Amino acid sequence: MKTDGGTDAAKRRAGERAAEDVEDGFVVGLGTGSTTAYAIEAIGRRVGDGLAVQGIPTSFQSRKLALEVGIPLTSLDAVASIDLAIDGADAVVDAPGSDAHGTLVKGGGAAHTREKLVDSAADRFVVVADPSKLTDRLERSVPLEVLPAAHTVVADRIRDLGGEPSLRAAERKDGPVVTDNGNLVLDCTFGEIEEPATLADRLSALPGVVDHGLFVGLADATYVGTDGGVEVRQY
Ligand SMILES: O=C[C@H](O)[C@H](O)[C@H](O)COP(=O)(O)O
């Protein structure tokens, strides 16, 4: 999962900067992926120094890491609110002045359904990224988590919308990726996505789609790790 060189250092800077925003008593949404992992590890170190927090993981992976680094865990149905969510992204639209500024594509690790649930429930949602994630044109494929019985029907509807679906294959198992929720993933290309909010609404309306990886209007800030520090985008 980890990358090397400058990108890995940039991910670390972004993740560790976000972990500094966690305050005593916070309930924290713990996103998924290699960048968020640095935030989780940093929060764990602060817990070791006496910080009192409760984490809500968004995947098997983030739960396992949080337990390893000593973050006490809770669940969405056990808390009144989430103070802060920290999560990575596969693409972040960086186009100030555009309606799409701050739109995300997530789900490269097939965790986007629970991520969206937790990130959207948080009072503040901070994205952590390295510069390779920033884009002024949204051309990345959009992951859809779909009920297994629905994958062919949803694939047909995606073609009706002008997209091209591809069932995500597992790398070290015959057959498809199965999400933490027991569903399948369709990666859907649409060429350049000029109106992500419109596409998001259309995808959400498809029966059999549990959730999609377009995060429109959800992020409050992106922390971009760079060679020398961290750049902050506020939305
Ligand atoms: O499903 C996975 C998540 O949306 C991740 O947050 C996303 O793929 C970014 O992961 P990474 O920080 O490893 O690039």
UniProtKB/TrEMBL annotation:
Coiled-coil ranges per UniProt = none
Record field: catalytic activity: aldehydo-D-ribose 5-phosphate = D-ribulose 5-phosphate
Give the top-rank taxon of the lineage listed in the UniProt record for this protein.
Answer: Archaea
Q: What class of enzyme is it?
A: isomerase
Q: Does the keyword Acetylation apply?
A: no
Q: Which GO terms describe its molecular function?
A: ribose-5-phosphate isomerase activity
Alphabetic keyword roster = Isomerase
The UniProt entry annotates the active site at 115
Q: What is its EC number?
A: 5.3.1.6
Record: residues binding substrate: 32-35, 87-90, 106-109, 133
Pathway in which this enzyme or protein is active: Carbohydrate degradation; pentose phosphate pathway; D-ribose 5-phosphate from D-ribulose 5-phosphate (non-oxidative stage): step 1/1
Q: Which Pfam families match?
A: Rib_5-P_isom_A (PF06026)
How does the record describe its quaternary structure? Homotetramer.
Q: Which family does it belong to?
A: Belongs to the ribose 5-phosphate isomerase family.
Q: What is this protein called?
A: Ribose-5-phosphate isomerase A
Organism, by scientific name, is Halosolutus amylolyticus
What is the primary gene name for this protein? rpiA
